[in-house]
UniProtKB/TrEMBL annotation:
It catalyses: S-adenosyl-L-methionine + a thiopurine = S-adenosyl-L-homocysteine + a thiopurine S-methylether. It is found in: Cytoplasm. It is an enzyme of class 2 (transferase). Its main location: cytoplasm. S-adenosyl-L-methionine binds at residues 29-40, 69, 90, 134-135, 152. SUPFAM superfamilies: S-adenosyl-L-methionine-dependent methyltransferases. InterPro entries: SAM-dependent_MTases_sf, Thiopurine_S-MeTrfase, TPMT. This is Thiopurine S-methyltransferase.
Length: 245
């Protein structure tokens, strides 16, 4: 990486349309789980969330926390262990089962009556419920409102053409005085088609700015050796906090 690319304040790429026609189907995402192509999974959890978690929670208990496109995120256990109620949505049943197995949690499964063919998996303790369905079908469950959303690997994974629909779905799930924690990436989108897709600050403003105050909490260099195969030479991860206006 040359010296001009070491700053975390690299100017964002101006052409936000370059990836707009990129599409991955739900079946392609399911295949990633079947074939073990899940490098996006963080076995130790997300370090920026770990760093800020107690600040976000402010000693509260009993919050309802939503994990869109949750995979087998270990952070779900972090919240549950602190006395919060966790709900996740994931299209891969394999990913959901792996979460409960790897976290040594017993669980039950049952059909979701509102969504034919879909299932919900619930921890025996009752504080983790993972819905195996499309994120766009999920509101049909009438699950209620959430105090917090942890959006890591979700907005950046949604097909760019579906972002507005996705953002509106997220906003519809938020209760009063919410905290929406959002992780996105900056890189040169002309060199890598995604996912994860490139989501600049202007796009976050477009999607959420009418409803939310938007604050970038931290930027970190997320570039790893494996990212060279993407054809990029820098990758910056940004953690945003969105709150009610």
């Amino acid at each position: 990486m040359d010296s001009s690319r070491t700053s975390l304040d690299i100017e964002e790429y101006s052409d936000t349309e370059v990836q707009k026609n990129q599409v991955l189907t739900l079946e392609e995402w399911q295949d990633k789980w079947v074939n073990g192509k899940t490098a996006f999974h963080l076995e130790q959890g997300h370090q920026l969330l770990k760093k800020h978690l107690d600040t976000f929670l402010k000693g509260k208990s009993g919050l309802r926390v939503f994990f869109p496109l949750c995979g087998k995120a270990v952070e779900m256990k972090w919240f549950a262990n602190r006395g919060h109620s966790v709900v996740g949505v994931e299209i891969s049943e394999l990913g959901i089962r792996e979460f409960f197995t790897e976290q040594n949690l017993s669980y039950t499964e049952e059909p979701i009556t509102e969504i034919p063919g879909a299932k919900v998996f619930k921890s025996s303790s009752g504080n983790i419920s993972l819905y195996c369905c499309s994120i766009f079908d999920f509101p049909r469950t009438n699950i209620g409102k959430f105090d917090m959303i942890w959006d890591r690997g979700a907005l950046v994974a949604v097909n760019p053409g579906d972002r507005k629909r996705y953002a509106d779905t997220m906003l519809s799930l938020l209760g009063k005085k919410f905290q929406y924690l959002l992780c996105v990436f900056s890189y040169d989108p002309t060199k890598h088609p995604g996912p994860p897709f490139y989501v600049p600050h202007a796009e976050i403003e477009r999607l959420f700015g009418k409803i939310c105050n938007i604050h970038c909490l931290e930027k970190v260099d997320a570039f790893e050796e494996r990212h060279k195969s993407w054809g990029i030479d820098y990758l910056v991860e940004k953690l945003y906090l969105l709150t009610e206006k």
